[in-house]
Amino acid sequence: MPFVEIGPSSICFLITSLVALPIRIVMQFLAPRARSSRLRQPRRKEPSLSKLIGAQDFLALLPVDEGQDVGAEETLRSYQLRCQEVLARHRVPVTVLRKDKTRIVDLKGVVIEAQVDWADSLAPAPPTPLMEVAPGRPAALLRVRVGNGTSLRPAEITRSLFGLSLRPIDFLRLHCWHLTPDGALLDPLDSGLPKNIRRAHRPPAP
Question: How many domains does the chain fold into?
């Protein structure tokens, strides 16, 4: 009579398989309805979610020096002009340190779109509790590329655009996007779906 040894790992695998079976049945039922349920099985050889993210939107609060004679309107205008002037250059090299090595990244290849205005007009609705957004505070709404060796950290971007060293609390990440080769933006959760059932993600330019 053959002897079969069942160890703890085998028992765990058996229990996990039995628990996962109902989930698989539900997934098979809901996957064709992924457009409405947002629940689907990954397609074969579909990249991981982190590899699908190619762009992100973030908001940066810009300071106003109340000790100066310059008013808030003038301060906002100076930020707008500075941003336009920097992005109008042919190339904006930024020196960064990555893994103890110095690299030069072109800011123009990272920033897709930029808008500078009052924080309350740029902040998402409803207001987020993660960051205090004051009506009289200038802010920058930036859409930038991430990954593929072209990334810059938010603090590096705002330092290059405005010459400012902002605190981590001054930044709020709003959304992550999958960037297609033709420049269209898709929700990363939808980017693996066939084109005929993808959600139409054409967000307004920031």
Answer: 1
Residue 126 has pLDDT above 90, yes or no: no
What whole-number percentage of the chain has pLDDT above 70?
Answer: 59
Specify whether the CB–CB gap between 97 and 33 falls below 8 A.
Answer: no
Kindly state whether residue 90 falls inside one of the protein's structural domains.
yes
Q: CA–CA separation, 105 vs 160, rounded Å?
A: 11
Residue 21 lies in a domain: no
The pLDDT value given to residue 120 = 81
Burial class of residue 180 (count of CB atoms within 10 Å of its CB; 0-12, 13-18, 19+): exposed
> Do residues 80 and 67 touch, judged by C-beta distance below 8 A?
no
Strands 55-61 and 138-145: antiparallel
b/e code 26-45 from CB counts within 10 Å (16+ = b): eeeeeeeebeeeeebeeeee
Q: Is the pLDDT of residue 43 over 70?
A: no
